[in-house]
Write a structure and sequence with these properties.
0% strand; 2 domains; MetI-like fold; mainly alpha
Length: 261
Amino acid sequence: MNRGFLLLLQILVAVVVLVAWHVASTTTLIGDPKTISFFFAEPLAVGQRIIDWFADGSIWYHLGITLTEAALAFIIGSLGGVIVGFWFARKPLLAAVFDPYVKAANALPRVVLAPIFALWLGLGIWSKVALGVTLVFFIVFFNVYQGVKEVSPAVLSNARMLGMNGRQLLRHVYMPSALSWMFSSLHTSVGFAVVGAVVGEYLGSAAGLGYLIHEAESVFDVTGVFAGMFVLTFFVLLVDWFVTLAENRLLVWRPKSAASF
């Protein structure tokens, strides 16, 4: 599918949603516009709030805090997931021993962990980073682990017959096999890193987009809530775009899918 046409369709979806939202919140076509705008705000008001935030510069401090927390959570969680995933995949006995503990740790509700991290690490950025790491780590870990386990036995046997040592196998066989799985998890992890930061800020902080959203919500400022969510969404999409660029660069050898979506 032509990329320009695809982009046009994506923009068209956004335009349709915004127009429908505007019509619902400003006219009587669907219902009482005052009631709808109270619960869902008005798109023009949300856009004006975002413009005001960037015009007076007040958003940059909060945005910087949230993005710093999310970036640290993403980097630490991803690196930890990749390293431990490779390690466990290459050590079957170790993976078997720790399998129930990993599953139990992954099953813990993260919202319960947030106040514990706040108690241990305080209300600064590290409690939010820790919460984000717990969200990112397991996503990357399970994907990398599965990616390494999915290495074709025939390819592995042929590589060993050619005399590859452990380091060469890791670079030329295991890494390419795991990269597709890893990047698939990284796209999801970007959002989860931000979720961890925002939830941590929402539960207790003095700065960040989660703090802004919580403050707006506490005074029934729905416009501020939606404005904060839109700013957050834009920067998550921006980071995900950078991940896609890195994926296309590193996986240039990967054959393109025959199916078009």
